[in-house]
Design goal:
Elements (H helix, E strand, L loop, with lengths): L3 H32 L5 H57 L3 H4 L5
Helix pairs in contact: 1-2
């Protein structure tokens, strides 16, 4: 499972691509690298505000936040499926290893 920071920047990168297109988003990423934005959310936020102004940054961030929530939900669903599978597997194993209570406590054979 990916770390939160990775998911956040992935969501924001996808949002920037959708809003500005591939070419402009490549330019923005280049500016980010030169500015040393890295993976710090506060630095990224300040960069967006300088680039787009306060209102533009807020709009882009809200779109990115929606996308992040979708990514997190998908990650959660993948983890939930994995644990659900393990639960079922352990139940099958338990049923095979432990004779049923009903069989052990029969009064009449």
């Amino acid at each position: 499972m990916k770390k939160f920071g990775e998911l956040f920047f992935e969501a924001m990168d996808d949002t920037i691509k959708d809003v500005f297109g591939e070419y402009a988003s490549a330019l923005i990423r280049g500016f980010m690298e030169r500015e040393g934005v890295g993976e710090k959310i506060e630095v990224f936020n300040a960069f967006l505000e300088r680039l787009l102004g306060l209102e533009g940054a807020k709009i882009l961030e809200s779109i990115g936040l929606e996308r992040l929530c979708l990514k997190l939900r998908r990650e959660y669903d993948e983890v939930e499926k994995y644990f659900s599978f393990l639960d079922e597997l352990y139940e099958v194993k338990f049923n095979l290893l432990v004779p049923s209570w009903k069989e052990e406590h029969l009064v009449c054979n």
